[in-house]
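User: Here's a structure from my thesis project, written as structure tokens. My advisor, Dr. K., wants to see whether a designed sequence matches the one we expressed. Can you design one independently, without my sequence as a hint?
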């Protein structure tokens, strides 16, 4: 039986793919369902990702918990570093070193790892140029690692389709339902399943008028800055949404 566990931050938790009951779904939930459908059998699934997490606790605390699951996972996806990129003085080489240690641990444990780079939100963010430069540095470092260790890699950062506004939530930082659906398709394609990554129809141009921009800063940028000043994270006091094995039946 395939046992799939996901570790990471808000990207992996599924933030932006909001459900009617207030929960979030996300690409990992969709991937688990796609794996069950592709295999034609039940898949066990866990998601330990927590929004706001930096890479170090992802590849230590979350990876520890993932490898401690019983039975042990057969497949693990890892994405992280986006929150580190938004902090002053973010060290991309250190993030690459942390990623390499996580790769080595999974190899030693006999768990197949799939690494993902996060989608690139930089075109529409304040200080987006800094985010893109750091994202390029980290992605290139990860590409070197996956070639060295022969690890499966899904390069969402360089997927130009997902940079379109229609794949993003109102905060411009997290993917929406369409964005998460596309990521799930990209991963399934990379794993060899017969599927096509989701593509949205062209829509109207995004409004970037003064009032719309003022609303964006008031509703999204200022609360984020306030949390940084107070040393708080959006993931404080949260746990992963599926911390034990959950059975996903083939549709």
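Assistant: Designed independently from the structure alone:
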């Amino acid at each position: 039986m395939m046992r799939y566990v996901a570790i990471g931050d808000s990207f992996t938790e599924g933030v932006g793919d909001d459900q009617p009951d207030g929960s979030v779904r996300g690409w990992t939930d969709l991937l688990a369902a796609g794996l069950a459908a592709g295999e034609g059998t039940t898949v066990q699934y866990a998601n330990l990702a927590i929004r706001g997490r930096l890479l170090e606790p992802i590849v230590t605390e979350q990876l520890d918990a993932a490898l401690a699951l019983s039975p042990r996972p057969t497949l693990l996806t890892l994405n992280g570093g986006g929150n580190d990129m938004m902090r002053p003085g973010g060290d991309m080489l250190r993030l690459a070193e942390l990623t390499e240690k996580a790769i080595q641990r999974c190899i030693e444990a006999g768990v197949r790892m799939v690494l993902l780079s996060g989608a690139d939100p930089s075109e529409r963010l304040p200080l987006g140029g800094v985010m893109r430069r750091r994202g390029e540095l980290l992605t290139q470092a990860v590409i070197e690692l996956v070639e060295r260790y022969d690890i499966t890699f899904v390069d969402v950062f360089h997927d130009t389709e997902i940079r379109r506004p229609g794949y993003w939530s109102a905060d411009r930082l997290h993917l929406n339902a369409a964005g998460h659906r596309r990521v799930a398709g990209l991963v399934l394609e990379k794993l060899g399943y017969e599927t096509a990554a989701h593509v949205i129809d062209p829509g109207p141009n995004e409004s970037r008028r003064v009032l719309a921009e003022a609303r964006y800063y008031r509703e999204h940028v200022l609360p984020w800055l306030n949390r940084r000043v107070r040393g708080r994270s959006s993931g404080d006091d949260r746990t992963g949404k599926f911390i034990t094995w959950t059975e996903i039946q083939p549709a």
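When you compare it with your expressed construct, this may help: DSSP finds eight helices and six strands in the chain.
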